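[scheduler] slot 2 assigned
[scheduler] job type: sequence-to-structure, two independent chains
[scheduler] chain ordering preserved from manifest
[runner] begin chain α
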Amino acid sequence: MASKIAVIYVPGLGDRGLKFQALIIAAWRLYGVKPSMYQIAWSEGDKIQPKIQILVDQIDQLVAAGYKVALVGASAGGSAVMHAYLDAPHKVDAVIGICGVLNGQMKVSQFHSRTNPAFVDSVNKLNLRQAEIASTGGHKVVSFIALTDRIVKHQYSLVNGCQVHRIPIVGHLLGIAFGITVWSYFIIRAAKRTIRQNA
């Protein structure tokens, strides 16, 4: 019997009022998964952990309902899904980054330090979890990167042992937009395959 799969999508900065993006993510149900979107509200509050705990609580509810859980994080959302994965490695079955900040080594600009303090805290805390990242391993992590990305450089989207796939488009924002729409079939396929491989 095939597993029930839930996919939680976490967008990056500027994640307020994303009704159109929410409609796009809802359409992922056509791939046979239960999709939802969790908005971190990066510009509100300066601590990431309470926001991650809400995400982990959602994961717990899905697991209790019999779902395998895949997390998809775009851009800054990659750091959030990595925190959730490290907090609940036995409950998260796949982690997908789309031009995502996955390893905490990114230097955050002064502008984002002022406007998105929760992102700064997320990156700083993730950087402190390098030993956890190394011990948990990247076998459940798949990173989709654009051909070029000047905002989240490729080295910030990699963890040891992860799979890497290129989205055939140039640029950070275009990479995300293309990833969640035209390339979404491959995103969900990677999530399903990773779940099967780690069952």
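[runner] end chain α
[runner] begin chain β
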Amino acid sequence: MDSVPFFRFLFLLSVIFWHISVPLFVSAAEHHCHKNEGNNVMRCMTPLGAIIQGAIAGAVGTTAMDLALYARHRASGSDRFLSWEFGGKSDWKSVSAPAQVGRRLYEGLLQRPLADRWARLTNNLAHWGYGIGWGCTFGVVGGSLRRLPLAAGPTFGACVWASSYVILPLLGLYKPIWKYSFTELAPDLAAHLVYGTVTERTFSTLARRAVTSLVPL
């Protein structure tokens, strides 16, 4: 059965990701503690805490972004949210560019084609993995700062959006950004601003509730 190589590939990809990313995250966020002088409090966030809270925030942000995109879809369609989010036709012509990246990774590493029946699953894994992965990155950076800037959320969302128009054109999956009109770019940018804002708000809320401890000074 060709499902065995596919799941072996997912396992291999997850092992590679964690072996590369976790040491980087740990070295970048080696136990950050910041003094809150007004309340005589020391706010401490461990690297693991930053990653976990960032992952949760990224998942919430991805959900918010998809709800914003779904609201636009509802104007011309009648699918329920879960059917629109996880269902649909499973072939490589109807999935997103991140799914095509996943397909290339699979076929490049294992040197065998990935069947159409895995297209929808690959699309979902790539989409949610991308949103959660960026959330982890935000968590590590946000956890290392004394205070997040007011515009951190929208700025983060805009950076995630812009990165797609750097990476995907190099892979031949998008055109260069200057070849798109503003009306083509605006809906995707707006959705990513929602993603960034909700990710930042969720992370900040989790951080306030989970990482504050009193230290005698």
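[runner] end chain β
[qc] chain β: Strands lie at 32-36, 41-45, 212-214.
[scheduler] slot 2 released
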